[in-house]
Amino acid sequence: MPQSRYFVDSTFEKEKRVFLSYEETRHLRVLRKQEGERVELVNGQNQLAQGQIISFGKKEACVEILEFEESLPATVPVILCQAIPRMPRLDLIVEKGTELGMHELWLFVGEKSEKKSPSLPRLRAISISAMKQCGRLDLPKILLKPPLSSWKEEELPYTGFYGDLSPNAPSLLNAKKNDPGTLLFIGPEGGFSSTEKKILESLHIQGVKLHPHVLRTDTAPIVGLSILNA
């Protein structure tokens, strides 16, 4: 686990001064950090910086960038396309998806899914926390998408797979390929409807089995991402 890291929504440059948010500043105070001490900063843009605390204000802290490095993402891009689940399950998907290298999260309303759109700023905060803890330097994008009936094959950046509950579906472990990226579709509790399966297959998304057992909608992406990024 990396040492405590602090998120700044800004690009890094040597000797640049950046300001930490109220929440990040509060974390500094909890750890009794003092002016002049060094801290590690991340921005979700594949940059890691070493900074020095310059000053504390009432609601923010000023940190000067001493040096920084850049790196490429550690995993091949996987876009998780998730039918919106209930909030506690969605929180877990965002957290674990970030830890497991999810490149983007596309949320959509399915026939059997939740209909209410979640708060994207709240989900982003969960993802930032997981990114800082797990050591990755890129922050997944989280987007709301329309229902599957509106999707077009030419708009999809990669081919991919969907979780299929059919007993004769091939295993994802055997079906995965060395593609430049993958779309992984996960349905709600109870799986995709027959209509949704037809839509996915028309988009050339292949149905696969993630595990011998039926998985919950928050367990399935964890298993799928683990297989694709193994």
How is the secondary structure organized here?
Layout: E1 5-7, E2 17-20, H1 22-30, E3 38-42, E4 47-56, E5 61-70, E6 78-83, H2 87-99, E7 104-108, H3 120-134, E8 141-145, E9 160-163, H4 172-175, E10 182-186, H5 194-202, E11 205-208, H6 220-228
Parallel strand pairs: 1-3, 6-7, 6-10, 7-8, 9-10, 9-11
Antiparallel strand pairs: 2-5, 3-4, 4-5
| CATH architecture label name of the largest domain | 3-Layer(aba) Sandwich
Count of strand segments: 11
Biggest beta-sheet profile: 6 strands, parallel
Low-confidence stretches: none
Summarize the structure.
This protein is an alpha/beta fold.
Q: How would you describe this structure to a colleague?
A:
With 230 residues, the protein is α/β, with parallel strands linked by helices. The protein folds into two domains: 5-70, Ribosomal Protein L25, Chain P (Beta Barrel), CATH 2.40.240.20; 78-228, SPOUT methyltransferase, trefoil knot domain (Alpha/beta knot). The protein contains six helices and eleven strands. A six-stranded parallel sheet has the order 8-7-6-10-9-11, with helices on both faces. A five-stranded mixed sheet has the order 1-3-4-5-2. The protein is elongated, with a radius of gyration of 20 Å. The two termini are 20 Å apart.
